[in-house]
Specification:
It is rod-shaped, with a radius of gyration of 42 Å. The chain is about 40% helix and about 20% strand. It is built from ten helices and 13 strands. The protein has a six-stranded mixed beta sheet, with helices on both faces. Strands 1-2-13 form a three-stranded antiparallel beta sheet. By secondary structure, the protein is of the alpha/beta class. It folds into two domains: about 90 residues, no CATH class; about 200 residues, 3-Layer(aba) Sandwich (Rossmann fold), CATH 3.40.50. This is VWFA domain-containing protein. Keywords: Membrane, Transmembrane, Transmembrane helix. Pfam families: VWA.
C-alpha cells in the first residue's frame, strides 16, 4: 500500500493551465533591423515568420506540463507503507521474594511422585511454573534470610531468571528471617522501574527476627509508593522461635497494601496459590506499533530529469542531424 505524505500539493496541478489560459505572453524588447519591405520579402521566399514561445511548440508545451506533474508528484512525497512492526511492552513489574532461612529445609512437602521434599524444593517447582506463565511481565527475584539480597533484577529474560532461581540454596542468605528488609529491598528495586503497577509476592515460613526495619513500617512505605504485596505463609504457626510462621503479621502486610494473604500447607495448596495469583494479576501489555515507510519520490523526480535530458539532448543533436540529412540529399 502506498500513499502521499503531502497530498494537498496535487491541488497545484492545474496551475500551469491557468497561467497558459489567462496570463499574457511574455515579450521582450530587443534591438532589430526594420525594413519597410519585410512582408514582400517573406512572400518572395515563400516563408512566413514564426511566433516564438511554447504556444507554437506543442511538444515543448506537453514536456513542460509533464515535468510540472512529475515534480509535484515528487514534492507530494509518495511512500510505500510496509508491514507494521509491533512490539509488546509490559505494563506491570512483579517481584518475587523467597525465604531461604534454615527452616525451609523442613521436609514436609511432597513432589509429583509422592516423595518427601523440603519446602524450598517445592517452592522452586511451583515458582518455576509461575514464571513460565508470565512471559509478558518483567520479573525479579529477591532472596532473604538474615538479610535480603537481589538474586535477579527486574527482567524479561525469564530463562536467566529460572537459572538464578535454581541456584538458590537454603541458608545462603543466612539462617534467620528478615521480612521487613526483603520488603524494603524490593521497594528500592522498584524505584528503577518505569511501570505504574508494581506487585511483590512474598513467601516465607517463619517470622521476622533480624530486620533492620519492622515489617509494619516496610508495609507503610510500600503503601506510600503504591506497591501491592501478596503474602504466602507456608510454615507451622504452632512451632517455636524462628520456625514459627507469623500468619497474622503476613495478613496485616497484605491488607495494608491492598494485596491478599494465602496459607499453603502442602504443595497442592501452594500450586493453587500461584494459580490464583496468576488469575488476580492477568497479563497486561502495551502494544507499540511502527509502520516503516519507503520513499518513492526518487522515481517521479528521476523521470522528470530524464525527460529534460532527452529533450535538451535532442535539441543539441537536431542541427547536426539536419546538416547530415542535407548532405545526403545533395
Amino acid at each position: 500500500m502506498w500513499q502521499f505524505d503531502y497530498p494537498w500539493l496535487l491541488l497545484l496541478l492545474p496551475l500551469p493551465w491557468l497561467g497558459y489560459r489567462f496570463l499574457p505572453d511574455y515579450r521582450e524588447t530587443r534591438s532589430a533591423l526594420r525594413v519597410p519591405f519585410f512582408a514582400a520579402m517573406s512572400r518572395a521566399v515563400g516563408q512566413a515568420p514564426s511566433q516564438a514561445g511554447t504556444r507554437s511548440n506543442r511538444w515543448q508545451l506537453l514536456l513542460n506540463l509533464a515535468i510540472w506533474g512529475l515534480l509535484l508528484l515528487a514534492a507530494a512525497r509518495p511512500v510505500l507503507l510496509e508491514k507494521p512492526i509491533e512490539r509488546q511492552k509490559p505494563v506491570r513489574d512483579l517481584m518475587l521474594a523467597l525465604d531461604l532461612s534454615q527452616s525451609m529445609e523442613t521436609r514436609d512437602f511432597t513432589d509429583a511422585n509422592g516423595q518427601k521434599i523440603n519446602r524450598l524444593a517445592a517452592v522452586k517447582e511451583v515458582v518455576q511454573g509461575f514464571i513460565d506463565k508470565r512471559q509478558d511481565d518483567r520479573l525479579g527475584l529477591i532472596v532473604f534470610g538474615s538479610g535480603a539480597y537481589p538474586q535477579a533484577p527486574l527482567t524479561l529474560d525469564h530463562s536467566s531468571l529460572s537459572l538464578l532461581l535454581d541456584d538458590t540454596g537454603i541458608g545462603m542468605a543466612g539462617p534467620n528471617t528478615a521480612i521487613g528488609d526483603a520488603i524494603g529491598l524490593s521497594l528500592k528495586l522498584f524505584e528503577q522501574a518505569r511501570e505504574q503497577e508494581k506487585v511483590l509476592i512474598l513467601l516465607t515460613d517463619g517470622n521476622d527476627t533480624s530486620s533492620a526495619i519492622t515489617p509494619d513500617h516496610a508495609a507503610a512505605m510500600a503503601v506510600a509508593k503504591g506497591v501491592v504485596i501478596h503474602t504466602i505463609g507456608i510454615g507451622d504457626p504452632g512451632a517455636e522461635g524462628e520456625a514459627r510462621v507469623n500468619l497474622q503479621g503476613l495478613q496485616q502486610i497484605a491488607q495494608a497494601t491492598g494485596g491478599l494473604f494465602f496459607r499453603a500447607e502442602d504443595r497442592t495448596a501452594l500450586d493453587q496459590v500461584y494459580n490464583a495469583l496468576d488469575t488476580l494479576t492477568p497479563h497486561q501489555v502495551k502494544t507499540l506499533s511502527h509502520r516503516p515507510k519507503k520513499d518513492l519520490f526518487c522515481w517521479p523526480l528521476g523521470a522528470a530529469l530524464g525527460l529534460l535530458a532527452l529533450y535538451h539532448g535532442g535539441a543539441l543533436l537536431r542541427p547536426y542531424l539536419a546538416l547530415s540529412r542535407r548532405r545526403q540529399e545533395a
